[in-house]
Design brief:
Length: 387
């Protein structure tokens, strides 16, 4: 009997030990699982933190690169503008590698933003352009240009001789220059004075109507023409660059990149004039007063002020002379100036148009004379001229 009790006690003790062991194992497993979960959470948190740090670092690096780039470009712009130069292409712009866009991650298609710097000068203008905006802006100007900050009190008519084309422009020295063009953004381009800067005529369209800011704009227009009805977008950013506290920019950086990466370019535009010294604080200049010149006095081709309209024709001429002038006088249709039958407007690039928005920027002659001079009909139009 005593022996059986002893055996029973041993069995009970063994069972107790086994139960205790299982409990310890389960506790260890729970502890192990808990530790693994904590470790996983810590790893995830660390990973997220590292991602944020990396993104912040990349953003900071991009901003730093853009700042360094702007500083280097401004140095060149000051050199060119101080020398009254048209720059390395002689067309008031140069290509500067790939686009260096900043803070476009949160911008949606069709959106745009204009800004001023801490001195109230027009600063960065950016837009996520779409084909629909380009299509909607075709045919006519979508608004009236606004005076940019520090628009000069006087805007003289001047004569600018372009070395690239050996032509002379007669007209206003300054334009209200879009940072993002009407042809790309449409009516949205007129919503803020900070989308405009005081730009010289060649800063706006170059020496041949296809340089300056116009060169950058046409890059996008040509892209859309080969991507009709596309859902792609084009990130477009213009940054005016100022020397110190000057009120008028020495030029601008234009960064352009399409969503399919087919278009990826930075363009530097020069705000200068050949042969005219500009005060970039107030727009004053040393340009000589505009005086019309007879073509017989020079072999150069001129882009002169257009002849008077029909209502302004002198009545002192003979009836036959008056009749001839009336028949060749241009007319207006809304914002467009329309050439008379057999007459055309010839641009600096030796292309002729039948309708323009600013006749003073063209040579108004007969189509036969234009063709004899080697001019060709423009293959396509833009916001300023139509074939």
């Amino acid at each position: 009997m005593k022996k059986r009790l002893t055996i029973g006690a041993v069995i009970l003790a063994s069972l107790a030990l086994a139960s205790c062991g299982n409990s310890t194992n389960k506790s260890s497993e729970l502890s192990s699982n808990s530790s693994s979960l904590v470790a996983a959470k810590r790893k995830k948190a660390t990973s997220l933190s590292e991602s944020k740090v990396k993104a912040s670092s990349e953003s900071s690096s991009t901003a730093k690169t853009a700042t360094n780039n702007s500083t280097q470009v401004l140095t060149k712009l000051v050199s060119y503008t101080d020398k009254e130069s048209a720059g390395p292409t002689q067309n008031y712009y140069w290509d500067n590698g790939k686009a260096k866009l900043t803070n476009f991650d949160s911008m949606k298609a069709g959106k745009y933003a204009f800004s001023a710097d801490n001195q109230g000068r027009s600063s960065v203008a950016k837009a996520m352009l779409t084909y629909a905006e380009y299509q909607a802006s075709k045919g006519s100007r979508q608004g009236t240009p606004l005076d940019p900050p520090s628009w000069p009190s006087t805007n003289p008519k001047v004569a600018i001789h372009y070395g690239l084309t050996d032509r002379v422009y007669h007209g206003f020295l300054y334009n209200r220059s879009h940072s993002i063009a009407d042809s790309l953004l449409g009516s949205g381009s007129y919503t803020s004075e900070y989308n405009f800067t005081t730009g010289t005529r060649p800063q706006n369209v170059g020496a041949n109507q296809e340089g300056g800011m116009r060169y950058a704009e046409e890059l996008v227009e040509n892209y859309w023409n080969t991507h009709s009805n596309s859902k792609n977008t084009v990130s477009y950013e213009t940054t005016p660059l100022y020397k110190g506290n000057e009120r008028i920019p020495r030029g601008s950086l234009v960064d352009i990149k399409s969503s399919d990466n087919q278009l990826n370019k930075e363009v530097v535009v020069i705000n200068s004039v050949e042969g005219i010294k500009i005060n970039y604080n107030n727009g004053s200049n040393d340009a000589k007063a505009y005086q019309s010149s007879s073509r017989s006095e020079s072999s150069k081709k001129y882009v002169s002020e257009a002849p008077k309209k029909h209502s302004e024709t002198s009545t002192t001429n003979s009836s036959s002379s008056v009749s001839t002038k009336q028949n060749s006088a241009y007319t207006t249709n809304g914002s467009w100036t329309v050439a008379a039958s057999g007459m055309v407007f010839v641009s600096n690039s030796n292309k002729y148009y039948s309708q323009v928005t600013n006749p003073g920027n063209y040579q108004y002659i007969s189509q036969s004379s234009a063709q004899a001079d080697g001019a060709q009909q423009a293959s396509r139009g833009n916001q300023y001229a139509r074939p």
